[in-house]
Amino acid sequence: MSPDHPPGLDLDRLRGLLDRERPGLVHGPLTGRLIEGGRSNLTYKVSDGTSKWVVRRPPLGHVLATAHDMKREHRVISALHPTNVPVPRPVLLCEDDEVLGASFYVMEFVEGTPYRTADQLAPLGPERTRGAVLSLVDTLVELHAVDPAEVGLGDFGRPEGFLDRQLRRWGKQLDASRNRELSGIDELHAALGRQLPDSPAPTVVHGDYRLDNVLIGDDDRIKAILDWEMSTLGDPLTDLGLLVMYSMPLGTPDSPVSTTAEAAGHPTPAELIERYAARSGRDVLAVSWYTAFAWFKLAVILEGIHYRYTLGQTVGPGFDRIGELVPVFIGHGLTTLQEG
Questions:
Q1: What does the pLDDT read at residue 253?
Q2: Most buried of the four, 39, 41, 98, 333, by CB within 10 Å?
Q3: To 10 degrees, the CA torsion angle through 123, 124, 129, 132?
């Protein structure tokens, strides 16, 4: 299949749908290419030579509908677009599997850069790097300031018992991929359960909020938050904890999992926490718990990847070294919880 006709994207059928549902939107032949994909949702960039859009659909083959719910993603960006939260403009949702073989949605293409590593941030220099990461905090404050009911998201999740359910869910994920002894992980899970904090008032939470899930423009401002597949209503401090975790150096050079924390000018975790607290007005005294929970969650995710690697189900560079990182994440989680 040619690059202009990537798998999972029938451009003729897509053009027909757009012409019917959004007449006059498309002005020329469509081309498309896969931006990213795999086990997560597939993302394509589509253009008519003048305008550009993004198509999001589930992975090819059989998937759990709840894990790749296009309607939820489209719903949350549609609700947030009129607010101060930067999200791409939604174009349409298609739940007719006849068009592309699965539900999908179309949104505007936003110019910007997702920074994934410290090396990618280096050309910005320390001052611009600092500004970009601080704007990440400010944008998170904007997200958590949205009243879910006011934007039609009052039933977007079940915030009651949110942390307890999250902890149980990731514990089950761990049990599903256990095939070796992992020192400290049960201790971390149990300690998190014993020290469960009281959640503040629920907000829309992104669920995977970090620098490489936002697009940053040439002015170092955040142009769009992407990848809403884990969003729900819940405890806003889970987003902060994850952001803080990604702002802490791993201490493992040449790691296949990278954070941007080593970039010159990157604010410290304490600065990010203080800025969030000052701008949101929320009590962040329990932030160590949320950060430790983020370490635990990532340890479970990495162990799942390692488990699939041992079964020969992963392809690509770096997977052979994921397993050695899991104890590092467990250790950081235990230390964070003890220091908190």
A1: 67
A2: 333
A3: -130
